[in-house]
Amino acid sequence: MSIDVHHVTKRFGDFVALDDVTVSLPTGQLTALLGPSGGGKSTLLRIIAGLDTADSGTISIEGTDATRLPAQKRNVGFVFQHYAVFKHMTVAKNVAFGLEIRRRPKAEVVARVDELLKLVHLSQFAHRLPSQLSGGQRQRMALARALAVEPSVLLLDEPFGALDAKVRKELREWLRRLHDEVNVTTVFVTHDQEEALEVADEIVVINEGRVEQVGTPDQLYDEPANDFVMSFLGDVTSLGGSSLRPHDIEISTSPVLAGGVEGEVSRLLRIGFEVRANVLTIDGEEVTVVLTRAHARAIGVEEGSTVWLTPAVGAAVVPRMKAVV
Amino acid sequence: MTSALLGPAADFAGEASTGRPPRRRRRQGPRNTLTPGAGLGLGIAMIWFSLLVLIPLVAIIVTAGEGGWSGYFDVLASDQTWAAVQLTVTQSLLVTAVNVVVGTIIAWVLVRDRFWGKSVLNVIIDVPFALPTIVAGLVLLSLYGPQSPLGLEWANTERAVMLALAFVTLPFIVRTVQPVLEELDADVEEAAASLGATRATIVRRIILPSLAPAIAAGAALSFARAISEYGSLVLLSGNLPFRTEVVSVRVLSFIENGNTQSAAALASVMLAVALVVIVGLDIVQRRVANRG
Amino acid sequence: MVEVSTPVRWLLRAVAIGYVFFLVAWPVSLVAVRTFEDGTSTFLHIFSDEQTVAALQLTVMVALWAVIINLVFGVTISILLVRYQFPGKRVLSALIDLPLSVSPVVVGLALLLVYSGRTGWIGPSIEEAGWQVIYDSPGMIMATCFVALPLVIREVVPVLTEIGDDQEQAARSLGASARQTFLRITLPSIKWAVIYGVVLSLARSLGEFGAVKIVSGNVTGRTQTATLIVEARYQNFEQGTAYAVAFLLAFISIACLIVVAFLRPSHES
């Protein structure tokens, strides 16, 4: 395992940012730390990088204990949400910074900077100042700067959080391709579940300072460990005391399936090709069901009609622990 | 070290709590985030600051206190000193009032008006900050003194005191109001206009209230500077007892007569005014910061 | 944005320009006129007057020391105030501004009470160790340091706050030591603020009068600075010399101002 986090706890005053977190992040993979804002994921990333220190617990990177190592000695690449570009240096100087600190020979620095700028498609901007670049370009430059020192791990803190939606989407795909090319162990923090599902090999869901679940995007989506993971990764409704996804509910106008729950359609809403039905069951439960428009028409559901609901075969179902919004 | 760190997790809790404090602050809190190097820097800086500023200022208060309340009272009750205090406070208040009006107008002109030579005006505003005070006195003497091209003979009068104070305090309100006026949201004024407010109403109800904290801060600084002024008055006011002698000149003559205790008593009063101004400013700034 | 009607605009403009013209511009320009009334001889004469030259040299020496000390102290305190949390920080931050509102006469008295060789708190022991503070250059440097103390800090603190510590953290994650981070990242980012602070401190230091007058003893040819010479010569009815030295001081301080005014806009954003 590339990064091992062992029983890490971190408090800011009374606020517990990380509560006894233990997690291992695999070598060579692209891992996402996913969770709501303020859940502790950025703090964990900063502790791995050595920018913050844990109150207790240990961190090891590539098998060596890094708990007490200062950030300078950890050999990690860190990419900040707001780029943290060195404003007074050109793009090339920014990328060269880590190499110059390590006193590499000049020719090597020039060659390496050249190579990296090509990799991030910024060769033609080498001698510009960061203020002349767009946000997406700055973030690519920051990425090249972090990669220049050949870090054992690359850490990205909400790398696309400050960019607009379109650039965000482009960079997301680009990061995936870059990772396949460079193959460095990469960890990125995000609060956007779509971003995590699309890009990551593995996702660590963090909430209120605790790890909720670790797994591949499919595992998380199909076998969520609990209510929280399920609701964070997509829409959730409840049926018969269990949480499940609205499109995982079979709806029929007659009690054909065993164990169907009877209810009345209180509201029917068409959104594009989908139909969203709110059903009030005889147990007094409000259930949301999503079905295609063709299916809705075929079985003839309307507002006020009586229907029977059953969980679809193979649906991801978790016991309902608390009210889910 | 390394082997110790590879021990059971329970040990780490103990290690970390006695270990180095965190290097960076991420959230506000009354914590100590000094690294050993920064702590050393703070220590040296504080020793210097104490030797230069704190201990000497404490010496004034202690020396002033040596005579007890009666010593204080005797100093202030002397006719000459009381006249100096009255003159200084009256003239400082007058000058501050002038600054509130004229300083705000100048700031307005610098921000909202456009004319040839505005940038020159902008630089001239700072001249009183940069000019040595003794030179300021001489400068004013050349226009308002004995050989005045205007035929004004204001040297050695109360007017000279006011003139000198107005000169040295000119930049305060201009420079505190100017940035606030620049930042003022044009939207708000336009919104007020769209709601039917006249120009005068907008100025009175929208602009002036937003400038009020800045004007107050500038006025406080300007008053504090005025009551402590010395250099520009030396040549201009003639330092005539009961007529043009200000508090700082009184302090100086106490020092020159070797009467350090009276000097310290009067100086401690000036110091108290300076402290009140500083604390007041701090409070105003915090209020404004919280509001916005 | 409120558009003022034309007559009001002209009125406000006239008040602003008129006030500044009669209070500052005209009087200041008259010093130049007085100095060069009889050609350049009066002005050049000050450079052949032994006492004046000694005073100018002393002024420059004292000002340079004060600026260097305030530069180091100011940058250190600024970084501590912006980048670290420690008990008493808020009090320190308020106290730092105190020298701006303390009368120069009070500053002089305060230093006298502590460092006077005869009656001061610690002055006699320092004198026994072979140092004289009051009535000598160390005291004059301290007085000058005191009055110009906050100028560097007031320039640097807002810039440090504005740039944040992102760049410094990035440098650390790239392997830069604390020293390398300061020299290669922090210092270049606050460079212009430091330069403004130094120029303003220099102007203030060259022109200090009241505090220096008290701690220097105003000994002609030994502890008399340029500003003290202006006073002495004017009261001695040598107005020519007084105006010439005043002109020189005014010229330097206004030059400092103009340097700052022209540097500032091109490097801010």
TrEMBL record, chain B:
Keyword terms, alphabetized:
Membrane, Sulfate transport, Transmembrane, Transmembrane helix, Transport
Question: What function does this protein fulfil?
Answer: Part of the ABC transporter complex CysAWTP (TC 3.A.1.6.1) involved in sulfate/thiosulfate import. Probably responsible for the translocation of the substrate across the membrane. Part of the ABC transporter complex (TC 3.A.1.6.1) involved in sulfate/thiosulfate import.
- Keyword Mitochondrion assigned to the entry: answer is no
Q: What is this protein called?
A: Sulfate transport system permease protein CysT
Which organism's genome codes for this protein?
Answer: uncultured Nocardioides sp
Asked whether the UniProt record includes Membrane among its keywords, one would answer yes
Membrane-spanning segments: 33-62, 82-111, 123-145, 157-174, 206-227, 263-284
How does the record describe its quaternary structure?
Answer: The complex is composed of two ATP-binding proteins (CysA), two transmembrane proteins (CysT and CysW) and a solute-binding protein (CysP).
Where in the numbering of this chain does the ABC transmembrane type-1 domain appear?
85-281
The protein's GO terms of the molecular function aspect are: ABC-type sulfate transporter activity
Segments of this protein annotated with the region Disordered: 1-34
Assigned GO CC terms: plasma membrane
Q: Please give, as recorded in its UniProt entry, the membrane topology of this protein.
A: Multi-pass membrane protein
- One Pfam family name is BPD_transp_1
Localization, per the record, is: Membrane
UniProt similarity note: Belongs to the binding-protein-dependent transport system permease family. CysTW subfamily.
